[in-house]
Amino acid sequence: MENLKYKRYSKNNGITLIALVITIIVLLILAAVSISTLTGENGLLTKAGQAKENTIIGQEKEQVELAYNSAITEKTGDKVTKKDLQKELDNIAGVGNTSVYINDGFLVEYTNTNRKYYINQNGEIEIDNETNTDISDESLNSFEGSGTKLDPYIVMSIEDLMFLSKDSQEGNDYSNTYFKLGRNLNFKSELSYCNYSTKEYNDFLGITDDIGLLEALTNDTYSGFKPIGYLKDSPFYGIFDGNGKTISGIYIKSKKNFCGIFGNSSTIKNLTVKNGYVEGGNATGAIVGAVRSGELENCVNESVTVVLTNGEYSEVGGIAGQVNGNRIERCNNYADVIARRKNA
Fold it and tell me: What is the model's pTM?
């Protein structure tokens, strides 16, 4: 009888233990579900964090819009400047909480959140997650490399392009020298310059006004950029690899021949240009006026308008004006090309 009692007790005890284990497992499952509900990708805490972030973004965008509209109201007749916008943002968002950059429009960065907002020429505001504002003179160290095929010179700023333009006109053709574009460059963005207000190249550009390089190259009062290898007897015979990057905002207005980012040039490849204007005489193109040797490969003109003015011949193109039998491969033009013949 005692043995039977023991067996029943043992059996009941085993059932209780199993039930306890099952209960624990269920509780763990429920706990995991609860934690997931709180912290998962669509969890309550995650959603709360996102809602808080969206609220802050909404507040920041509203401050930027208010500041921009206030700057417009304060300004009568002239365009809003970087200084105007920064003043209004200091009043609304607090001194030191924002930084304003000229960026083909304006770029406003909130220093505490590192969020950036782009204001285009129409005053429309959008979040910018790509533009790098952490640029210093050190990071734009001109022409790192040795100029060989395996170790090309790296072009990192508008000043680098200006140096090549000036140096080529002084007789350096850079024959068999290799260059590679290290990052996207925008003539209308101060972030593409080492020092956008430098006056170092004003004499070279024929400018006597007291203005900086960005304005000298983008204000249509002036002639803009002088092509690299501008003169027929001072070509640029370097090999320039765009490295899949983009040059934006080029502005050239000239009646001389051989106009483009490059005038008389050699091999250019893997380069895209957009949002610009190039006007010149015979042999004018957005990227190169005339290809004297080498080849054009994998180049794209997205939206640089090209205008032939006072040309005796129709040597004009979206990519190149004159090719002279050299190879062109995988190049595409999507921009307007306008030819104004002499005496037309």
Answer: 0.82
Report domain extents, the chain.
Answer: 44-127, 153-341
Residue-by-residue DSSP string for 40-100: STT-HHHHHHHHHHHHHHHHHHHHHHHHHHHHHHH--SSPPPHHHHHHHHHHHH-TTSEEE
Kindly compute the dihedral angle of the four CA atoms of residues 191, 197, 198, 201, in this order, to the nearest 10 degrees.
90
Q: Where are the alpha helices (DSSP H) in the chain?
A: 2-39, 44-74, 82-93, 158-169, 202-205, 213-218
If DSSP codes are grouped into helix, strand and coil, which group holds residue 191?
A: helix
pLDDT digits (tens, 9 = 90+) for 119-158: 998 889 999 988 888 776 656 666 788 999 999 999 999 9
Spatial separation of the C-alpha atoms in residues 125 and 39, rounded to whole Å: 32
What is residue 4's three-state secondary structure? helix
CA distance 179 to 304: 23
